[in-house]
Amino acid sequence: MSAAVALQTVSDVPTAGEESYFTVFAGGEAFGLSVLHTQTIFRITSVTPIPLGPIDIVGLVNLRGKIVTAVSLRRRLGIPVDEVQNSLAIGIEHKGENFALIVDEVGDVLTLDASMKVQIPAHFDPARSRFMAGLYKVGNLLIPALNIGALFDFSN
Amino acid sequence: MDELLRDFLTETTEHIEGAETQLVHFERNPSDASLITSIFRLVHTIKGTSSFLGLERLERVGHAAESVMGMLRDGVPPTQHSVTIILAAIDRIKTIIEEIGAHGSEPPGDDSAIIDALEAYYAAGSEAATAAAAAEASSNKAAAPAASPEPAAPVVEAAPVAAAVEQVKPAEPKVEAPAARAEAPKAEAAASQSKEGRSQGGSTANQESIRVSVDTIERMMQLVSELVLSRNQLLELARHREDDAIKTPLQHLSTLTSDLQDAVMRARMQPVGRLYANLPRLVRELSTSLGKSIDLVTEGADTELDRQLIEVIRDPLTHLIRNCADHGIERPEERLAKGKPERGEIRVSAAHEAGQITIDIADDGKGLDTERIKKKILSQGMATEQELHAMSNEEIYRFIFEPGFSTAQVVSNVSGRGVGMDVVRSNIEAIGGSVTLSSNEGKGSRFSLRIPLTLAIAPALIIEVAGQRFALPQTSVVEAVSLGKNYKDLIQNVQNALVLKLREEVIPAVELREVVGLGNNDANEESEKLAVVMRVGTDSFCIIVDGVADIQEIVVKPLSASLAHLKVFSGHTILGDGSVVLILDPAGIGANLGIEKSTEKKREQARDQNAQERRRLVMFRAGPGAPKVLPLSLVSRIEMVETNRIESSDGRLMVLLQGRLMPIVPISSHIDMSRPSYPVLVVATENRSIGLMADEIVDILEDKLEIQLASANSELVGSAEIRGEAVELIDVSHFIRMADSPGRTNPVPQRVLFAADDQLVRDMLCPALSAASYNLVATSIPADISELVNQFASFDAIILDADAPALSAPGFLRALKERKDPARTPIIGVSRTPTNRTSRIATENGMLALLSKHDRHALLETLAYALDAAADAKATSMEIAA
Fold first, then answer.
1. How far is CA A38 from the centre of its chain?
2. Does any domain span residue A155?
3. Inter-chain CB proximity B563 and A50 less than 8 Å
4. What would the DSSP string read from start to end of B162-209?
5. What dotted CATH number matches B271-452?
6. Measuring CA to CA, which residue among B518, B514, B522, B566 is closest to residue B543?
7. Residue ranges per domain, chain B?
């Protein structure tokens, strides 16, 4: 909660062409998640699985009286999941729906701008690259920015 | 969407609902200028704002309506016509606004019909005003010449203008029945004014208010629910501790939370008055179409109800009011004869009673005819005589809500087809309410709706299966059967499917764990399983669960879009302990089981059986001979049409019904236009309706319909026997064709008889006639000429070989001349060499013409002309009879 408030101030002052991103981790890899999408960061205490639902949807979570759909970033990317209980989730509202994106860890806030963007290499697995909004070069690291639209699209 | 546009939409939508009501009140109380002034102001604002926002359609309709309303505001008395066109304009404004709301821009469309009607009325009015002003100026020279038709003229001065407008009748279409205008004499208007004044008091109550979006309220509701849960957890903790220090503040917190919950719930409420807004107009329209005088009294407009429920009740309420107006209230003359006031009254009152809302719809009409209902129950086989005997009146009235029950002797367009009352009941029951009916014969009847205060909270069973909990709405649960040790007896596996044998019934069953894909773990078969029997529509089935954990009031929330495809669940909710559970959807589970399909099959079977067994038929008389029947399913309604409203145009009869021209086809040609009215069976075809004119409706009955004698006559399908009486089944398609074309370009080939002995002539002319798509019957001339003449009646036209000796014999010509042929079948003679003399003889003896055998074109032309003329003659002969 407090993290979300602190970050709000960061997102309030984006300079032209720049955007602030959280670094989130899943299976040891870092991803960028735009702070503009982020509402809150919280720990999941209990989750209600949805039988027959999409496998990547872990279940439903009560987030302060609001029911949110919990999606595992690991499952989305095809990384095995151990335990959902007590894991870290980021509250995101997308197309009027409330989601919680379950990640392993949340790291620093990065400021990325268009000049750091590089082409997504063609040989990336489409199952992964479809969740990427772009690939950024930060120092000697390559960090993919997450595509929220694709992450929370279960129409297939 | 633009902020400005959004504000405009919200505001206009809110005000326009009131405008309709005010307009209808104004029609009744023309003296209350404040009513029209406020509508005028509203439309003026709409016009102004839409011009500013560039909404052209709204602006134009608004402008035209404003002109007419300006006339009314300036004292021109409202007529039914003027109010109707303004209502139409308001309707159009509403539609456009809805469209803008949905799409953000004005939809394309043509409003010229409405605008023309308004402008025509306005033009007629202002012309009259000018005329009146001029007349006044000339007759009273002392008067200021400035008595202009300026709409700003004060009311007193406008009086002659009003009179003049009334004279300018041609501007008003004929729809305006004289009876309707006579309907609102001043005294009655004054009497009803007080009543309506009362009902108005509630809706116009001007309380201080602010506009809050529904989302905000919903969010508050969620937070309060959450707060209640937290409080419950705290209370639970406090119970186990002997700490008095926190007990008092906790108690205080608890009361405050409850109060807050109450207050937020109240914020969701809306006054029932919103439901009342459309009623005056509905009653006005019903009074006009039924020819009854009905006053509407509404009470308790400020009673509050959850906004969701208001929408659910709207349709049932409308239906019940229609029912009161149609079946309850008697015609004015009937009322006077019974010593009742001429105007009937429908009273709608709402009140808050013991945590429920009751809405009563009462009329002071004739009440229910218990004997007739009993008869109907018996004839429908819904109960036996003994059973009826033991029933109270209230119990008997309950049958009225059964599907397929209608006691209306004549089906009318307003109600009475036996659909509706059962729908009313199921709609009300779906929201956990109930509907009852009481009646006092001769004094009136009363429907009472009892409705829960809110939909948001519903009782649900919390069931458990494979360690997971689910909520099951209690409304569809019939019973829960403990299986326990009797599992094997009660549940059987038949053909790889489970069934529950309960009492005498066999109910389809399924393991819920299989439905939700939680594996079929048979290890805990020993545990106390339960079978929960549910009913969806008319079907029962049961789910087998591990147990029922609880019964809780749940706040239903719909599934989010990414889960909406899961048909087995209808939503989710947060339970008292803060955990989230999914809500099972009984209909979805049923569909999963294939119940839906089997229902359809059942219905199909029922339908097939119906075809062989019983059908609802309308029996009527049309012309001499056996009574005719038509399956009721083909008839969309039955109207009594006044003969003077039937007009003839282009050889067809038609009547203006609800603003549309409907062709009328007489079933029998024996029509007496001096009768005041005829029952007309309205049959809907693919794109329109046609009216079949009968002499009298005999009955509506249910019986087998087995055609025993097929008919050669195209008007009839055949004859059947019903209740020991021969009846004829009408062929609707024949009459639909007749409505499409009463003679010319008839898709049915016309039958032409060609009688000639000369084979060469027949060979020569027959192909030409057949090619012109006549249904040709060629015959040689029989020895007995009268045999030939007798055949004439079954043809549309006759062609005779005038050269044949038998046909030029004086005996034949006399027979021709003296034959009785009401249809006046045209007869055309053909001859090798027609002369003036032979032509004259032919025409003198009843032939239409004598033509050359070699002139095929002349023959075809004459034949076409003759058939057209005959069709026209048929149509005009009916007019002459009038």
1. 9
2. no
3. yes
4. HHHHHH-GGGS-TTS-HHHHHT--HHHHHHHHHHHHHHHHHHT-----
5. 3.30.565.10
6. B514
7. 3-198, 214-267, 271-452, 461-588, 613-740, 751-881
Residues of B in contact with A67 (CB under 8 A): 557, 560, 572-574, 580
- Please name the residue of chain B whose CA is at the shortest distance from the CA of residue A66: B222
Residue B744 has what pLDDT? 41
Q: Chains A, B: CB contacts under 8 A, how many?
A: 63
Please state which architecture CATH assigns to domain B613-740. Answer: Beta Barrel (2.40)
Average of per-residue pLDDT across B260-270: 81
What is the spatial order of strands in the sheet that A88-94 belongs to? A38-43, A88-94, A97-103, A66-72, A57-63
CA distances from B135 to B132, B168, B323, B693 (A): 5, 15, 50, 49
Cα B500 off chain centre by: 42
> Which range has the worst mean pLDDT, A120-134, B412-426, B682-696, B770-784?
B412-426
| Structural domains counted in chain A | 1
B93-117 pLDDT per residue, tens: 888 888 888 777 788 888 888 888 8
Q: Residue A110 is part of a domain; what is its CATH number?
A: 2.40.50.180
pLDDT for B361: 92
Task: Nearest by CB to B579, from A48, A51, A69: name it.
Answer: A48
CATH superfamily of B461-588: CheA-289, Domain 4 (2.40.50.180)
Residue numbers in A near B557 (CB within 8 A): 67
Q: What is the mean pLDDT of residues B69-77?
A: 78
On the CB side of B306, CA atoms within 13 Å amount to 18
Rounded Cα gap, residues B515 and B527, in angstroms? 19
Answer yes or no: same fold for B461-588 and B613-740: yes
pTM of the model: 0.44
Q: Is residue A149 part of a domain?
A: no
Paired residues of B440 in beta bridges: B444
pLDDT at B149: 42
Shortest distance between the Cα of A27 and any Cα of chain B, in A, equals 25
Give me the pLDDT at residue B406, please: 60
Smallest CA–CA distance from A54 into chain B, residue:
B563
pLDDT at A11: 41
Q: Is the pLDDT of residue B347 over 90?
A: yes
- Closest CB from A57, A62, A152 relative to B574: A62
- DSSP code at position B325: I
CB-based contact A69 B222, cutoff 8 Å: no
Give me the residue from A53, A57, A67 closest to B580, CB to CB. A67
d(CA B318, CA B637): 19
Contacts of B573 in chain A (CB under 8 A): 67
- How far apart are the C-alpha atoms of B674 and B682, rounded to whole Å? 22
Do the chains contact at B572 and A67, CB–CB below 8 Å?
Answer: yes
Nearest to A50 among B222, B226, B582 (CB): B582
Q: Determine whether domain B3-198 maps to CATH 1.20.120.160.
A: yes
Contact residues of A toward B, CB < 8 A: 46, 48-54, 57, 59-62, 64-67, 69, 95-98, 152-154
C-alpha distance from residue A130 to each of A92, A113, A147, B450 (Å): 19, 21, 8, 55
- Domain boundaries, position A59: 2-138
Quick one: average pLDDT of B753-782? 75
Q: Is the pLDDT of residue B582 over 90?
A: yes
Q: ipTM score of the complex?
A: 0.81
Task: Give B518→chain A minimum CA distance, Å.
Answer: 7
Task: Inform me whether the pLDDT recorded for B746 exceeds 50.
Answer: no
Asked if the structure places residue A151 within a domain, the reply is no
Sheet holding B356-363, edge to edge: B294-299, B344-353, B356-363, B444-452, B434-440
Report whether CATH 3.40.50.300 matches the domain B751-881. no
- Superfamily holding B214-267: Histidine kinase  CheA-like, homodimeric domain (1.10.287.560)
